[in-house]
Amino acid sequence: MFFCGLSRNNVYSNADYKDADGVILVYDITNRKSFDCMTLCLEELHRHAKKRQAIILIGNKSDSENDREVLRKEARGFAEKNDLIFWEISALEGTNFDNALKDLLTNLTNGEDCTPLICGCRLGERG
């Protein structure tokens, strides 16, 4: 798993993701900073990666609606503006993860061998 953006140890180079066919950008719907860094991740990908990549934006923790800091409408708008696939999932409950991956795989080019990449923001340990 590779992380880009606001991480404590952002040591990955463009060589880590330049050959990825599919990219998964993950943010935490209960953490505004994790969503805000998606712009930086996307800029980094566009600067160094393949021209044609299937990119999906995933908002995790859809099971934590009461703690939501990122509105679904805002995230969907960001995804549409940047031509990204968009899903909200709950890793805890296993909700929508399979559907999100199916959409990503459907958008990959011609069923070739694929190199996946997962990007997100590692903002520190939760206490």
Structural description of this entry:
- This is Ras-related protein raba4e.
- GO terms for molecular function: GTP binding; GTPase activity.
- It is a single chain.
- This protein has helices spanning 32-36, 38-48, 72-81, 97-107, and strands at residues 22-28, 54-60, 85-88, 116-120.
- It contains 4 helices and 4 strands.
- The protein has 127 residues and is of the alpha/beta class.
- Residues 1-13 and 121-127 have low confidence and may be disordered.
- Helices cover 29% and strands 18% of the residues.
Task: Describe the protein's topology.
Elements (H helix, E strand, L loop, with lengths): L21 E7 L3 H5 L1 H11 L5 E7 L11 H10 L3 E4 L8 H11 L8 E5 L7
InterPro entries: P-loop_NTPase, Rab_GTPases_membrane_traffic, Small_GTPase
GO molecular function, one term: GTP binding
Protein name: Ras-related protein raba4e
